[in-house]
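User: Modeling request: complex.
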Amino acid sequence: MLEIVTFSLLNGVVYGLLLFMVSSGLTLIFSMMGVLNFAHASMFMLGAYFSYQIGRWIGFWPALVIAPLIVGMAGAAVERFGLRHVHRQGHVAEILFTFGLAYLIVEFVVMVWGRNPIENQVPAAIDFPLFTLFGTHFPAYKGLMMAISVGMFAFLYMAFKRTRLGLIIRAALTHPQMVAALGHDVPRIFVLVFAIGSALAGLAGVIGGFALLTEPSMAQALGPIVFVVVVVGGLGSITGAFIASMLIGIVQTFAVALDYSLLDLLRTLHVTVAPDSLLYEISAVRIAQAAPLIPYLLLVAMLIVRPRGLLGTRET
Amino acid sequence: MTRDGNRDASRMAPGAALREWVVAHRLWLAAAALLLVLPFLPGLEGDFGRSLLSQMGIAAVFALSYNLLLGQTGLLSFGHAVYFGLGAYAGIHLMRAINAGLPLPMPFVPIAGAATGLAFGMLFGALTTRRAGVVFALISLGVGELVFAAMRMFQGFSGGEEGVTANRGAGMHFFGLTFASQLQVYYVIAIWAFVATALMVAFLHTPLGRMCNAVRDNPERAEFIGYDPVRVRFVAFSIAAMFAGLAGGLHALNYEIVAAEAVGAGRSGAVLLMAYIGGVSNFLGAILGAIVITWLQVSLSDYTTAWQLYLGVFFIAVVLFAPGGLAGLFLMHAPLLRSRAWPGVFKAYAIASVPAVFMLAGAVTLLELNYRLATQPEAGTRLTLFGVAMDTSTPWPWLAASALLALGFYVFRRTWPRVAEAWQQAETEARSPSGSRR
Amino acid sequence: MTGCIPRPTAARCALELHDVRKSFGATSIIRGVSLEIVRGERHAIIGPNGAGKSTLFNLICGRFAPSGGSILLEGEAITARPAFEINRRGISRSFQVTNIFPRLSVYENIRCSVLWSLGYRYCFWRGMSRLRDANERSERTLEAIGMTARRDAPAGVLTYAEQRALEIGITIAGDPRLILLDEPTAGMSRAEADNAVALIRRVSQGRTLVMVEHDMGVVFDLADRISVLVYGEIIATDVPARIRSNAAVQSAYLGTAADA
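Assistant: Request completed. Predicted assembly structure:
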């Protein structure tokens, strides 16, 4: 029992930190520019693929630095040459543009690396057990992932609260027009924000590509959950995104470990349900099976009850 | 197709009243005639052609329902397939019941789809229409993922990824028709599509329909003329969901199988694509988008494995350069055609299209070469494109394609000022008295 | 200080404000406004910028809820009710920054505004062309604001003055008992303002009108009574002649050599 709880907690924390890594950049972009960047998870995917390629050509540690840079530049290009022309058409057009872009990035990946998952092996440098718990190894790359994730949080937190740029961004969260009126080069700030956000996603991809299968559909698998994190955490709040990621990560991991269903509960209460009825089918669902639903239930509930999220500063 | 104007038909002779009615509804009658005749036109007569028409019909109803939501009421939804798919499931289960002996003719199956769409639309709508804009879009995304995951979980109802099947031909005979042939299915779909379109257009000309437009344009002002925008959105949402469910029922009838992908994000994305590419602000755009995208999906995949990429590029191009969609492009050129000032502009287009074609040929070649290399290594390195045989392992196709692309783009750019000039001229001509009199 | 001559009874008051207050966070905008608007009168609210005139309108018609006090429409409380409910009870307002439906035609803008008042509510089973009363009322409103020639133009492409006229049209189309006009002649030339005044005089016949205005010519031309709002408080309510000569008002707003 203790073993299950410990591992669930540990894995939940790891998963939560992975989620935070991927969504931290989106928090920045969504909060600052109001753009629901559907292509954010695609940047994550690009980071994984680029680091794989660079890792094969040069090595892992250079890839850890170069891949995020490339993805960041790609993000800057997207904003400068694409998204910028769409801002004046309103948020709907922006969303649709990133929606189409996500599509295109998947096809680009397919075009270069093919449709099958690639052999993204954990490099030898970080492929050793960090420690052993209850007889199971805890791999070092997961430790690196946790370290990078916490580092991202610290970086973003400090950047938001302590730097001048962070001050401008925080002001722009609640009063974007006023910030522009005060003379800040908002378009250039947008490019910077988009680039940093994408680079963060790319960095997450470098490490996350080992934890998840690196294939063209990885963006679509992770994309919606990343939105859930940002929305539940709240617009404009890095801490909120952190809390939301940990919440979802831990709850979902625990749920997967729970192999009980409503039917089991009814049985212990000596209530019998006819095997062919709809009620049977609904109650026979095990919590582990329903685990993927949890983030979306949380999203819908949060949006109905408190659209600004846990720690958000404004609604849209 | 406007029907404004109060005419007192009862005061006219019956013959004149009928003539009056025919003239007022001539476009509808023409459309009905076209639908009747389409499956016999050359190129569309075989089963393939009729199947294509059926698919277009289903897509058109679905896209129209989405237009009602986005174009008319301003609600961007990423989960509209939920109502389509649930309607499809209701349809297929009803078909199975008919197969098992329920005495209901097959053409009535889509009603179950519509009813299911309406029920779930009201259920989810009550929860989600309190907010608009980005928040609404996100909720729709969440609901979509929820329902998709639920469908994959409740295998007994949904058949999971493999789906539920039924037999369209094994039911009560309807005036001697068995619906085993694609032609009969086409007519059922065509009739439903016509009815659905007529109803949706009629809806737009009712008080609530007008208020949907008002709420889209300025929800705050709508409050100050007495309307609760939330209530308006709720009713519009429910009606849009009903028609999406109707399309789902038609889908069940046509394909005889419904699987979890019917409620999935891919299908929600597809209808968004159709409505937007066609043109989101008027309902003709939705129909146009449905036709074009369905045709592309069906035929393009025969020519190339990269068709999804082309679709994506097409979509982005529309978002960036033609936000009014194809319908918007037509409308933009309509005053030009009316004023007879079009020759200059079209000549400029013709000149600009030459380098554009070369540029596109180069781009497509590069993409196809890449795709062949990356995704179909087993097919070898030789392929034939535009009638030219090439080998991906040799450098010259790559070089030639890159050169075409670069050169084509460069020259194409040089023609843009010409096109702009031609437009300027056409506009001034159209405004001057001599121009409009021609 | 409120004073009508003679003092209005409850039955004669179209709108009453009792000690209405509004603060945004720590900032007090409206600090205890009490006002009684007589039925059928044309009442102007004037005051320097930032006095809170638009905020007062927003409180009356439900855009914000007051932080304190109460508002009554012909004796019924409408404090903090949703805006659409207040509109349904017969208050209609225009906006200082034109707030129309840009993609609808001028005619459609007006027609949408008459729908609720004629009882059509959320009806989706009757075609617009058959709604004779809605179409007739819309035509009459169009004529009243002089926009019949532009009836099919999309509202977004109208000139500024045309949009202001449409703004007033939307406000009066629903036949409201009480009309609130927020700076109806803002940004207009002398000639356009004169037209607007004539229009306002016409459409406010038999109805109660409250307007916020900066143009003193318009105010003294139209108003039966004037209230002066300064820093969220009413410093005077009276007939124009006495307002003009009121010392407090002069020092706060009009200026001592008042020859408005």
